[in-house]
Amino acid sequence: AQKVTQAQTEISVVEKEDVTLDCVYETRDTTYYLFWYKQPPSGELVFLIRRNSFDEQNEISGRYSWNFQKSTSSFNFTITASQVVDSAVYFCALSEAPPNTGNQFYFGTGTSLTVIP
Amino acid sequence: KAGVTQTPRYLIKTRGQQVTLSCSPISGHRSVSWYQQTPGQGLQFLFEYFSETQRNKGNFPGRFSGRQFSNSRSEMNVSTLELGDSALYLCASSLGPSGTYEQYFGPGTRLTVT
Fold this sequence. Notes:
Chain A is mostly beta strands. Chain A has strands spanning about 5, 10-15, 20, 25, 30-40, 45-50, 60, 65-70, 75-80, 90-95, 105, 110-115.
């Protein structure tokens, strides 16, 4: 079973539209971390956000916002007023912390976002 | 501050050969993780090194190995290359153990096995 599911493979939006990227995760750990990364066409992954399992407070950073809901095991990412520069593949990731073995890191399959001017 | 650097950026090898990839982390970072990215399998965790010790390993065969030096630089080795090893290999560094610290990724090494 997938630890991290990003059901949306590709999304296209017109510039200035809002878009939400879905992420559903699966873990039995009580302590874990969730991440979002952006991979622009240049290829280099860029860190966007990290949340730990004890902090369900939603976060906003400029046009980006994240909604973490433990009840539904989701960590969704919304881009408000999208811009062409937002076009990239976005990855959601989960890090578990099993005892004595370090962190297990799992990435979703990514959502390719295209913002049309 | 210089970012994560990976060498070489591109590599072409033939089946059966072995290859060594190098990663220099951001100065001060002690953790280096390696990932394989392919169109079919996506991003998969290979292993992580922290203070010269392998901290964790993903589900890859023993042909994939790595090490970390005292200056935190890391190398990844793949022996007896197979066609399926063709991928983008990404290295990421962080101040401390990955998962609890932000990871910064390098540009990757594109390996093609023919």
